[in-house]
UniProtKB/TrEMBL annotation:
Quaternary structure and interacting proteins, as annotated: Heterodimer of an alpha and a beta chain.
Protein name: Pyruvate dehydrogenase E1 component subunit alpha
Record-listed E.C. numbers: 1.2.4.1
InterPro entries recorded: DH_E1, PDH_E1_Alpha_Subunit, Pyrv_DH_E1_asu_subgrp-y, THDP-binding
Reactions listed under catalytic activity: N(6)-[(R)-lipoyl]-L-lysyl-[protein] + pyruvate + H(+) = N(6)-[(R)-S(8)-acetyldihydrolipoyl]-L-lysyl-[protein] + CO2
Organism: Sphingobium lignivorans
Length: 357
């Protein structure tokens, strides 16, 4: 006969008996509600998403002109995720970490577009002094901890940031973004285990844009409902329409409430889509043009907010004027990034760890 196993509550149960009922009844976050935005908030969401889109379009052009070296991963299509989440965070208190598709996140956190574009073109004025490029942008001032090229690494690092928030009792929450592909990495689950054990203040955000480079979720993921990926660590998850900025904001508030109440980590699966290739060098032959066109026509995040604005009585002309302002900001950022000086050769020797430890 199987030896009785000890349950978490300390009571014993037979190994063959079902798990204690309490496991199934354990507390879960409420159903997230769509955020009810005021007209001004909607306008701000529109502005921020448009800024990301126009910025990324211009970055794509600069890359084509040979002004951006190295890799360049655009965020077009996913704008509602970063904008909706960021709008719910407390600037200066909460920390953020993400992968290499990071320009949109930095813009959503209010970082000057000029400094981001100048980083792309490798200039001294860039946010990482032109030495990080597209994938390695960093701003401690904004509690934005990168920009990481190693798939999944930001999940462990973000868990460490959350540990820091708890240890220092600073009230902050870490938001760690990663992709559907990264979600299949081993270190993600080691991090989940520690975060759940220590009830760390972290929101794990899986940006499920349906593809990891050229591999679709269906071909790579045995459990493609990513919000369930924390279940065996008792981390609850919510699946969210990541193309709807109001749904994203509503779910983030629910998640923040959970984490700030000291209940430990929570997972948000953002169902989203990227319109461009994985990076600028991807011809995207693994999917049809029709597939992309269909998403653009039926669930574009910016068009969704435009519709809501029209319903709230905002005139088409006002929206066009915002677009013109945004184009101007992006043009100025591009001019700055093309004309500002490159770092002096001496910069090669700064920010390099030389001590032994
Ligand atoms: C550890 C590691 N393995 C492989 C790669 C190569 N690689 C770069 S991006 C990527 C796909 C990641 O896809 P996903 O997590 O879905 O993010 P997305 O690009 O869709 O935002 C891979 C395999 C890498 N950078 N790091
Ligand atoms: Mg992906």
């Amino acid at each position: 006969m199987a030896k009785p196993a000890s349950s978490r509550s300390g009571k014993t149960s037979s190994a063959s008996s079902p798990p204690p009922a309490a496991d199934h009844n354990r507390e879960r976050p409420g159903e997230p509600k769509s955020y009810e935005a005021s007209k001004d908030e909607l306008l701000e969401f529109y502005r921020q998403m448009l800024l990301i889109r126009r910025f990324e379009e211009r970055a794509g052009q600069l890359y084509g002109l040979g002004l951006i070296g190295g890799f360049c991963h655009l965020y077009i299509g996913q704008e509602a995720v970063a904008v909706g989440i960021q709008s719910a965070l407390t600037p200066g208190a909460d920390s953020v970490i993400t992968g290499y598709r990071d320009h949109g996140h930095m813009l959503a956190y209010g970082i000057d577009p000029k400094l981001i574009m100048a980083e792309l073109t490798g200039r001294e004025a860039g946010i990482s002094r032109g030495k990080g490029g597209s994938m390695h942008m960093f701003s401690v001032d904004h509690k934005f901890y990168g920009g990481h090229g190693i798939v999944g690494a930001q999940v462990s690092l973000g868990t460490g940031l959350a540990f820091g928030h708890k240890y220092n009792e600073d009230g902050g929450v870490c938001v760690a973004y990663f992709g559907d592909g990264a979600a299949n990495q081993g270190q993600v689950y080691e991090s989940f285990n520690m975060a759940a054990l220590w009830k760390l203040p972290i929101i794990y955000v899986i940006e499920n844009n349906q593809y990891a480079m050229g591999t679709s979720v269906q071909r790579s993921s045995a459990e493609d409902h990513f919000y369930r990926r924390g279940e065996s660590f008792r981390i609850p998850g919510l699946q969210v329409d990541g193309m709807d900025v109001l749904a994203v904001r509503g779910a983030t508030q629910e998640a923040l409430e959970w984490v700030r109440a000291g209940k430990g980590p929570i997972l948000l699966e953002m169902k989203t889509y990227r319109y461009r290739g994985h990076s600028m060098s991807d011809p995207a032959k693994y999917r049809s043009r029709d597939e992309v066109q269909h998403v653009r026509e039926t669930s574009d995040p910016i068009e969704g907010v435009k519709k809501a604005l029209a319903e709230a009585g905002v005139a088409e002309d006002e929206m066009k004027a915002i677009d013109a302002q945004i184009r101007k900001i992006v043009s100025e950022a591009a001019d700055f990034a093309e004309t500002s000086p490159e770092p002096a050769p001496g910069e090669l020797y700064t920010d390099v760890l030389v001590e032994q430890y």
